[in-house]
Amino acid sequence: MKKLQKIFFTATLMIAAVCLVFVSCTKEGAVGPAGANGKDGVNGLNGVNGVDGLNGKDANSSCRVCHTVANFDTKIAEYHLSKHYLGTSSSRNTKFCARCHTSEGFQEIQGSGQFTVTNDMPNATRINCQTCHKHTGFDFESGDTLSQVLFTNKPVYLNYNKNLTATDFGKMSNLCVNCHQIRGKTALVYSDTTLTPKVLNAAFDQLPYFPFTLSTNNDLDTVQYRAGRSFAVHDGNQSNLFAGINGYEYAGVTYVRTWAHTGFSCTTCHMNTYNATDKTGGHTLIVNKAQCTACHGGDKLTPVQTSISAKLVELGNLLTARKVFKKTTSGTGVVSYSALNTHDFNGKLYITPLPSDSTKTYAASSSMNTVSTSTGLVVYGNILKYAKDADWALRIGRPWTYGELGAAYNYGYINSELSIGVHNYKYALKLLQSSIDWLNAHPVSKK
Question: Are 382 and 188 in contact (CB under 8 A)?
Answer without folding.
Answer: yes
